[in-house]
Amino acid sequence: MPRHIKIGLIVLGVGFAVAFGFFVNIVGRVQSMMKNDRAETEENPFKPPTQPLYAPTDPPMNVKLFFPPESGDTLLLAQDDTIFKSGEVANRVKQILQKLQDGPHRDGLFPSMPKDTKVQDVFISEQGTAFVDFSNTIATNHPGGVLSEMATIYSIVDSLTYNVPEIKEVKILIGGIEKETLAGHCVLLLPLQMDLSMTNVMPREETSTPSNAASLR
What is the pLDDT of residues 117-148, one digit of tens each? Predict the structure, then answer.
């Protein structure tokens, strides 16, 4: 093989090696940058700011929250608590649901929701129906049984309808969809109204406008 051809092949080989090394280096840097970006994203995922559920000027408001007791014939017992009277009905509903998620703070009561249950969304219709969408854990983590399911359902329904007059009934959704039952027993297909017969609280008395004759006495 002529000498000049050998020299040309050697030069081409060296050039290819340099170019290949440069390419590998660039690819490595890009992969490293992508890994770093992914790690930063996983460590610091973007989270939208949480909207406050009440304003600093909103007055406190006494509420009754319903939880199942450790013993006794009553399915639900009331616990006195406090929220803030937001002008937004949905915000009052969310505050009450948050209190139910936190569980009772007095002895002798059990949490009414399974562990890790989250409220995903709340919508209030013009007719006064509160649509509350829970995460799937309210069903998958539920122990089941008729009484246990009723305690969970009416802890939610009674706590909302008793304390928020604008709410006439509650429709429970699970995972964004309508479910036939909570955990195999209690039906969830229809919106549910307040039922205090299974609690230790009497219904609120309807306030009537005094007649003219009574006002003159």
Answer: 999 999 999 999 999 999 999 999 999 999 99
Residue 24 is predicted with a pLDDT of: 42
Residue spans per domain, the chain = 1-44, 60-198
Phi, psi of 153 (to 5 degrees): -65, -50
SS3 letters for the chain?
CCHHHHHHHHHHHHHHHHHHHHHHHHHHHHHHHHHHHHHHHHHCCCCCCCCCCCCCCCCEEEEEEEECECCCCCCEEEEEEEEECCCCHHHHHHHHHHHHHHCCCCCCECCCCCCCCCEEEEEECCCCEEEEEECCHHHHCCCCCHHHHHHHHHHHHHHHHHHCCCCCEEEEEECCECCCECCCCCECCCCECCCHHHECCCCCCCCCCCCHHHHHC
Residues lower than pLDDT 50 in the chain: 18-20, 22-24, 26-27, 29-48, 207-217
Place of tokens 């890790």: 116
